[in-house]
Every structure is written in structure tokens, then in C-alpha cells.
Structure to design on (788 residues):
């Protein structure tokens, strides 16, 4: 069922990027999460997370992506918004987490995943992601 | 304030004191206005400045001085040799026993004793659990440290509603909180010694080893295999609340200040003279909050004066 | 050589914090899983974790289809006010057909025995029972069929308990390590007001703050500085027992280092002394963790049963387990007492 998304993304990304020229990476992420993640999120359990400014930092790419979860999906935020929760890791480790090849606590103990801000939100994000079945066929497999 | 009615109980010494210090401490206690004294080593089975016959002999002296005497058992039984000691404790019937773990409870119940005290580490949090120990022969119980005033009141109402008879409640009102118990020894660890070759370093620390955060905040006390709170627990400025729920109030011996507090509690019950608040203590658990917190009394007797 | 007909095959009991972990445990060879409801009735009450009635029913179905048993942990201590909620949880679990309840509270034990006499009961590690007299107490009064021992006994002490115990004994084999007698620790409550005993969580996340500072990564629990980590230095859970504190002029791990329990090398001996089950800690971890740990332990137990005298832990097993460990190192804990 993911197969179609793989081929739809590039033109859709282009559309979003053109609409939000100041925050393209965050918009791309929000778009991807809307497609992949949002339909599977247990929204009734995520009240604490709604409308909270989140920041995802992909350290090796130098990306700092600000976004938030709303009842209708993920939305990019301007980069200057102060985050309630920041998650930082390398591309490779983020992908390994999403693929369930790595355990978040393992990465955390090894200082490969950094979490700052509201720890309870962090735990909710972690446990929610771990509880839902997602498959990511289009993501490159880290070597 | 009106004079209060309660039995005043002295808990076992949590620290490892040299024999001489223990004996002279209890000589002073024999003269002090406490009603009951709980004797024995509860923390670490390696601590043997006094052995069971010594505690029994001391108990006789205190009984002769008019004190009711209770012998307390270990909080943690690790081996058959510890169990042997507990069996001897249960077999003597001169004094009541305070049980601090469930093997001791079983031995007391099996011996048909109905005079024992269920210690705070037995984890009684609700009336149904209390009813189970009452049925097994407990005559008195102590709530776990983190049980709040509201939860204790609720528990006691619930117990009454079960119509299973009566049980006495004993409540600590002063002394360090016993927060955690382990098989490993934190004092030996501090000295980089093995537990079995600990050289009895606890003897050099009559008030335990203070532990502070890296920012210098006093926090905990390492007492061998036990962790205590750095601040003493105190309901000394809440005696009306404590006596509304408990028939007996307990003090935990400390190297300093025990006799003074015994005297203050005694004045409270004879003369209705309320002790001054102790803002350096903690009472957060009483309000269902963080244990280290201290809440000043809303109507301090000093303020009222 | 051990007589194989007399060897008791220990059950591998794995954590399931959510359906994905349960699936991972079942797929990788768990004999049983343990799990809890989404509330304070169990000792891993974390946001986003655990099961509701529907997911538990599905979990039981999936597990049973693969010959895996399901144990439900109801191992916190209810207070008077919450009593009806906890007994309802016991009744719900019984109705859903769990294979055993893991209980600690005396009141709940009595309730379960009286209302559900057919239901198997295990005594939780939170019950703090460390000797055979204590186990006999729970067995005689509440009919427990198994007890989980606190992680404070040495291997010889465990053997002594197993020899005289009226019930089967389950021990922790791997995972996070409580150094305190379980069920007897109010350190979290002292700092935060919330405890494993009453709220089902040690050092709850809402009291934890991680801050990057010029001195390093700081972990605070309700304001108390638990530890400060240099860059690259392995971090641990922000529990009081694994922090660095100042005692007598030295700053060190005054209670315990961040490390995990790993008893893999003791496996033949655990089998020989007759433990009925080996438990893996970690319902708060993830499917990745459960898969990795279950796979290793399944292989190891099978290898130890097939040829106990030749058993030695494969380096790749140990490496796999060390990778997921807190502090990325392991210890034999109390089983072998380096600190004794």
C-alpha cells in the first residue's frame, strides 16, 4: 500500500516546497509524516502532544526541523519557534529507529539520540512510534 | 491546645553504634518518658555488636524500668542462617515481635502468635491488605512511609467497614525516613570494600554517610545496605493530625536530639504544649507530595499565640 | 553430566509493552510474555505503553496461537480510594483469559484467590519475597504457583530458596537492574511524590529534565541533579540509584553504575538449580530490543539445555546484549557478588 506513495512524493514535495519556500525541509517532513504516520496515530491518546512545537534535528545534515501535530495532520512551524521537545540524531540513526532496527533507549544510552525539553512528551513520542506498524519502503537503508 | 493521648514508642536504632553507645543510650531511655521500646538490629545481619541474647537481656532491663518491649526482625532475609535467627526470635515469647518481612510473618502466624506488629516495610496500602495481616495475627501495624494522611484516613475507615475487629496504628512522627533497602552495602562501596570484608565501617558513622547532589544539596544518607532521608521526617508540628489517626507515635533514634524530642512529645501529651515547627524536616508524604518537601502548619501554635 | 529427564526446562518470559513488542517476543521464541493495562495498576505505567481491553484480547489470541502464554502484571499497591479500579482490573484480566496474574498486594491476592479460584497467580517481584518462608506464606494463603525473586540474592541463595520453596521460582535474567529490594524503594517518591509501588513508575518522565549545558548533559529529577555526562559518556536512566553524588568528598556512582543485569553465563547453573522461568526486563523499551534480546536468550537456553557441559556464551550473544544495555555494559548483579 506504500508503493504508490513512493512515486507520488516528488511532485507533491515540489508543490509544498513552492508553497512554503522559507521552511522547505520542515514542510517536506510534515508532508511525509502526514502520509506515513498520521493515519496510524492513536489521536485520542495524543492530546498531550497536540499543538506542541517539536524540533527534529538531523545532526549530520545540519537540519533543524520545526513542526507540530494538529488534529488534521503535521504542520511545519517557523524555525524560530521555541520547541517543547527536541530530538536529535543522525540520518542513519533516525532511519534505524523508524525501521525498528534500533531501540530508542539504546541510542540514548550511547548518546546517539539526544532528547531535550519535555521528557514526558519525548516518552510519549517514542512509545507511540514504537507501538504503531509503519513500513518505510522508500527510505534508503543505512549501510 | 488540650493534652493529647498517645503511646510513645521508640523505634530500633537504624545505625550501627558500638555496644557501649547502645547500652548507654538505652540507660538514658530507661529514665525517659517513652512507653515502649523496639529493640534489635533490623538493617544488616552483619552488625552484631549485640546478639539476640544481648537484646533480650537489654529488653528485660527496660521492662524492669517499666517499658513495654518489642523485638524487631530483619527487613531483608537473604539466607537460611538469617531465617534461623528469625525462628529464634519467634520462639521466644517473653516479648512481642515486629515483623519487617513476610517470612517472619509466616513464622509468627504458624506459631499462633497474635501479639505481633506489622512493620512499615510490609507494604500495607489498603484496608484489605491490612485485614490479611490482622487475620494472620497482627495486633498493630505501621503504614509505609509514602502513605499520605488522606490515604491513611481512608484506609482506616475502610478497615473499620470490613468489620474484622480492631488493630492499633503506630505512626512515625520523628526521625530519618527509611527510603530503600538493598542487599549491597553502600558504605562498604564508599570505602571500596567487599561487603563480607566491610571492616564494619558503619561503626565510624553514627549518623550514616551523608550524600549530597553534585550541586551540594543535602539529599540522602547511606546507612550500610539502607538509604535514609537526609532531612528527618517530622509530624511533631502535626500531633493533632497524627493522634487523630494513630494510637501510638514512634520516634526513630538519632545521634542527636532524640531525648529532647521525647521530652517535647511528653509535654505535648501531659500539658498540651505543642512542639515548635521544624522547617528543616520533611513532611511531604503526609500531603501526598514529594517526600523531601516541608509544608508549614497552616495554623502554627506559635502563630496563633 | 546432568540427567536430561530431570532437567527442568526454564520458561523464557519476555516483556511486552505494546502489541509490536508482543509480536517480536512471540516471533523470536518467548515461552511467555508479561504485560500490563494502560494505567497505574502495573509497574510500567508510562505514556503510550501497555494494553487496553481490546489490544489485550488480540494479544492473548496471537500469543496462544503460537503456544506462548500471557501473564498480566497487576503489581502495584492499590490505596483505599483506588481499590475498585484495581479489583476491576483483576476481574477483567480473568475474563479475558490471561494465563496468570502477577500480583504483589495482599488484598488483591486475597481478592483474586476468592473470586477467581481457577486463575493462576504469580507473586510479583514487587512482593519482596526473598526466602522460602515468605513464599510459603503466599502459597498457603493465596495459592500462588510461582514467585519472581527480587534481584538481591546470590546464585547460591537462589538455589537455597528453590530447594525449599513450595512454589516455582522465576528469576530475572537480563535487563535493567534495581539494586534495591523491589517493592521496598521510596527513593523516587522522596524526590517526586510518585513511586513504583503506588504509581507504577520510578522517576516518572514528567519530573525528568535533560539539559545540554557547558558542563555537559545534565539529568534532573524534580530539580535534583542526578548526573552530568561528558560528551560521548554513556548515559543511564535518570533514576536516583544510578546517579553520581558527593559522599565524603568524592563524587561517584554512590549507589550503582548505569548498567544492566546479564546472567547469560550463569545459564547452565540456573537450569541446574531448577529455576522455572527466566525473566527479561524491559516493557518500557521497544520491539527492536525485545526482538534482539529474545532471539539471543532463546538460542542460549536451547544451547544450554542441549549440551550444558559445553555451554559458554557466544561472544556475538554478549555483544548483542551489551549493545542494548544501559550504560552499554553488564553485570551479574547480586547473583555473583563482586561487591560482597
Amino acid at each position: 500500500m506504500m508503493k504508490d506513495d513512493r512515486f507520488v512524493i516528488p511532485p507533491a514535495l515540489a508543490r509544498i516546497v513552492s508553497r512554503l519556500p522559507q521552511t522547505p525541509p520542515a514542510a517536506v517532513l510534515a508532508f511525509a509524516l502526514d502520509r506515513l504516520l498520521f493515519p496510524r496515530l492513536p489521536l485520542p491518546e495524543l492530546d498531550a502532544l497536540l499543538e506542541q512545537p517539536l524540533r527534529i534535528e538531523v545532526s549530520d545534515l545540519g537540519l533543524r526541523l520545526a513542526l507540530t501535530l494538529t488534529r488534521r495532520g503535521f504542520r511545519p512551524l517557523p524555525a524560530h519557534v521555541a520547541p517543547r521537545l527536541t530530538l536529535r540524531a543522525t540520518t542513519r540513526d533516525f532511519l534505524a529507529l523508524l525501521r525498528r532496527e534500533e531501540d530508542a533507549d539504546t541510542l540514548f544510552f550511547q548518546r546517539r539520540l539526544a532528547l531535550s525539553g519535555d521528557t514526558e512528551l519525548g516518552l510519549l513520542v517514542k512509545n507511540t512510534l514504537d507501538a504503531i506498524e509503519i513500513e518505510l519502503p522508500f527510505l534508503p537503508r543505512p549501510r | 491546645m488540650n493534652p493529647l493521648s498517645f503511646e510513645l514508642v521508640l523505634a530500633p536504632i537504624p545505625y550501627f553504634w558500638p555496644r557501649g553507645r547502645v547500652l548507654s543510650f538505652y540507660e538514658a531511655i530507661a529514665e525517659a518518658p517513652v512507653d515502649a521500646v523496639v529493640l534489635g538490629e533490623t538493617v544488616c545481619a552483619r552488625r552484631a555488636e549485640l546478639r539476640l541474647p544481648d537484646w533480650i537481656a537489654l529488653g528485660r532491663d527496660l521492662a524492669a524500668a517499666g517499658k513495654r518491649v518489642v523485638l524487631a526482625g530483619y527487613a531483608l532475609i537473604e539466607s537460611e542462617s538469617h531465617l534461623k535467627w528469625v525462628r529464634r526470635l519467634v520462639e521466644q515469647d517473653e516479648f512481642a515481635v515486629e515483623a519487617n518481612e513476610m517470612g517472619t510473618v509466616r513464622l509468627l502466624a504458624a506459631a499462633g502468635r497474635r501479639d505481633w506488629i506489622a512493620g512499615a516495610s510490609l507494604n500495607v496500602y489498603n484496608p484489605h491488605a491490612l485485614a490479611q495481616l490482622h487475620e494472620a495475627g497482627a495486633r498493630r501495624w505501621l503504614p509505609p512511609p509514602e502513605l499520605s494522611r488522606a490515604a491513611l484516613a481512608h484506609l482506616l475507615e475502610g478497615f473499620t467497614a470490613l468489620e474484622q475487629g480492631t488493630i492499633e496504628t503506630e505512626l512515625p512522627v520523628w526521625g530519618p525516613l527509611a527510603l530503600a533497602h538493598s542487599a549491597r552495602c553502600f558504605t562498604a562501596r564508599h570505602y571500596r570494600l567487599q561487603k563480607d570484608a566491610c571492616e564494619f565501617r558503619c561503626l565510624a558513622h553514627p549518623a550514616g554517610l551523608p550524600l549530597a547532589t553534585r550541586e551540594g544539596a543535602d539529599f540522602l544518607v547511606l546507612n550500610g545496605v539502607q538509604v535514609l532521608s537526609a532531612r528527618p521526617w517530622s509530624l511533631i508540628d502535626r500531633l493533632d493530625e497524627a493522634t487523630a489517626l494513630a494510637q501510638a507515635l514512634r520516634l526513630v533514634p538519632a545521634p542527636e536530639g532524640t531525648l529532647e524530642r521525647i521530652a517535647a512529645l511528653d509535654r505535648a501529651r501531659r500539658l498540651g504544649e505543642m512542639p515548635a515547627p521544624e522547617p528543616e524536616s520533611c513532611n511531604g508524604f503526609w500531603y501526598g507530595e514529594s517526600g523531601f518537601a516541608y509544608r508549614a502548619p497552616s495554623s502554627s501554635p506559635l502563630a496563633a499565640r | 553430566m546432568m540427567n536430561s529427564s530431570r532437567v527442568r526446562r526454564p520458561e523464557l518470559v519476555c516483556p511486552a509493552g505494546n502489541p509490536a513488542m508482543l509480536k517480536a517476543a512471540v516471533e523470536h521464541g518467548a515461552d511467555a510474555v508479561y504485560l500490563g493495562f494502560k494505567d497505574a495498576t502495573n509497574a510500567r505505567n508510562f505514556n503510550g505503553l501497555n494494553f487496553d481491553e481490546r489490544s489485550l484480547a488480540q494479544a492473548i489470541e496471537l500469543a496462544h496461537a503460537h503456544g506462548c502464554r500471557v501473564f498480566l502484571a497487576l503489581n502495584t499497591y492499590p490505596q483505599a480510594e483506588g481499590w475498585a479500579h484495581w479489583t476491576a482490573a483483576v476481574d477483567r484480566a480473568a475474563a479475558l483469559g490471561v494465563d496468570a496474574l502477577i500480583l504483589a498486594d495482599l488484598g488483591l491476592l486475597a481478592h483474586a484467590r476468592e473470586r477467581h479460584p481457577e486463575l493462576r497467580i504469580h507473586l510479583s517481584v514487587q512482593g519482596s519475597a526473598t526466602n522460602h518462608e515468605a513464599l510459603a506464606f503466599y502459597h498457603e494463603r493465596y495459592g500462588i504457583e510461582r514467585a519472581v525473586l527480587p534481584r538481591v540474592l546470590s546464585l547460591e541463595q537462589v538455589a537455597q530458596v528453590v530447594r525449599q520453596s513450595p512454589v516455582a521460582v522465576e528469576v530475572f535474567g537480563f535487563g535493567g537492574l534495581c539494586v534495591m529490594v523491589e517493592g521496598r524503594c521510596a527513593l523516587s517518591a522522596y524526590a517526586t511524590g510518585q513511586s513504583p509501588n503506588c504509581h507504577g513508575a520510578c522517576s516518572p518522565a514528567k519530573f525528568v529534565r535533560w539539559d545540554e549545558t557547558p558542563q555537559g548533559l545534565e539529568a534532573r529529577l524534580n530539580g535534583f541533579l542526578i548526573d552530568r555526562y561528558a560528551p560521548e559518556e554513556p548515559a543511564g536512566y535518570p533514576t536516583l540509584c544510578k546517579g553520581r553524588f558527593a559522599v565524603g568528598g568524592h563524587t561517584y556512582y554512590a549507589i550503582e553504575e548505569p548498567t544492566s543485569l546479564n546472567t547469560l553465563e550463569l545459564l547452565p547453573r540456573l537450569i541446574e538449580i531448577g529455576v522455572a522461568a527466566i525473566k527479561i526486563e524491559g516493557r518500557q523499551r521497544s520491539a527492536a530490543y525485545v526482538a534482539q534480546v529474545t532471539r539471543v536468550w532463546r538460542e542460549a537456553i536451547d544451547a544450554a539445555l542441549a549440551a550444558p557441559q559445553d555451554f559458554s556464551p557466544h561472544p556475538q550473544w554478549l555483544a548483542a546484549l551489551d549493545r542494548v544495555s544501559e550504560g552499554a555494559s553488564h553485570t551479574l548483579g547480586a547473583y555473583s557478588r563482586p561487591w560482597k
